[in-house]
Amino acid sequence: MKKNLVIAIDGPAGAGKSTIAKLVAEKLNFMYVDTGAMYRALTLKAIKKGIPLDDNGRLVEMAREAKIEFRMESGKNLVYLDGEDVSDEIRAEEVSKATHHIASILAIREILWRMQRELRDHFNIVMEGRDIGSKVFPDAQVKVFLEASVRERARRRYMQLKEMGIEGDMKKIEEDIMIRDNNDQARAIAPLVRLPDACAIDNTQIPVDQVVDKIVSLVSGCLS
Q1: Are 13 and 179 in contact (CB under 8 A)?
Q2: Which positions ≥6 away from 32 have C-beta within 8 Å?
C-alpha cells in the first residue's frame, strides 16, 4: 500500500519553520503539523496542573491523558488541548523556557511520536520540528533542514515580541537562542541533527516565497 507523502522540515528555533511549513502545506493542500506546539501544549498543561517538571511519572501520565488537536478555523492554524484553544497561551515565555524539560522525557516523546505517525494514515503531511526526519518519519519522501544565523533568528523573535506589544532585549534573545540550540543539539534523546539526505536551506537572506517554491519543487520531483 502506497504511503501518504510526508515533508519533514527540521531546524533550530527561529529558523522560520512554522511560517514556511504553513505556506508549503497551503500551496500543496497538505495537513500542517507543528510538533513543537504539541510539546508546548503538554508543558502548559503541566504548569496549569502544578506538576513539577522533575516528576516524570506524573508528567508521562498527564501526556497519556492529553488530547491535542490541530484545527483550521477562519484561515488560522489553531492548537487545541483537551478541547480548549491554547494557540496563544503556548507561546508564553514561561512555556518556552520549560518545554525542553518535557521534550527530554523519552516516554513522552514516544507518546507524541505515535500521535504524529498516525496522522499519515489519513493525510499528506507537512510536519516541522527538531526530529521529524531522524525519528518520527525517517522514511519521509522529502526532508528539509531549515536554518538561519543566530542574529537573524533573534531579530525575528524581537520583531515578533514587538508586534505583541512586548519590548525585548536583542542581546538576551540571542543568548537564549544559543542556549536553546545547545539544549536541542546536546540532548541524549532525539537531538537536533542535519541529516545527510536532507536538503539544507539557509534562509538568513532568502525571501520566504523562494524557500517555499524550493520545497514545493522537491515535492514535485517525488510525484513525477
Answers
A1: no
A2: 21, 22, 25, 26, 70, 77, 125, 126, 127
Distance CA 58, CA 26 (A): 37
Give the chain's count of helices (H) and strands (E). 8, 8
Task: Choose among 199, 200, 205, 192: nearest CA to 155.
Answer: 205
pLDDT bin (cut points 50, 70, 90) of residue 41 is very high
We find that the CATH architecture of domain 1-30+124-219 is 3-Layer(aba) Sandwich (3.40)
Helix ranges restricted to H, 50-140: 56-65, 93-103, 106-119
The H or E element containing residue 28 is: helix 17-28
- Return the CATH class of domain 34-122: alpha beta
Buried b (16+ CB within 10 A) or exposed e, 188-209: eebebbebeebeebebeeeeee
Nearest in space to 6 (alpha carbons), one of 219, 221, 220, 224: 219
| pLDDT tens by residue, 119-170 | 999 899 999 999 999 999 999 999 999 999 999 999 998 998 888 788 889 9
In the chain, where are the structural domains located? 1-30+124-219, 34-122
Q: How does pLDDT run across 57-109, given as a tens digit for each residue?
A: 999 999 999 999 988 887 788 999 999 999 999 988 899 889 988 988 999 99
Helix (H) or strand (E) run with residue 32 in it: strand 31-34
pLDDT of 223 reads 66
d(CA 178, CA 137): 27
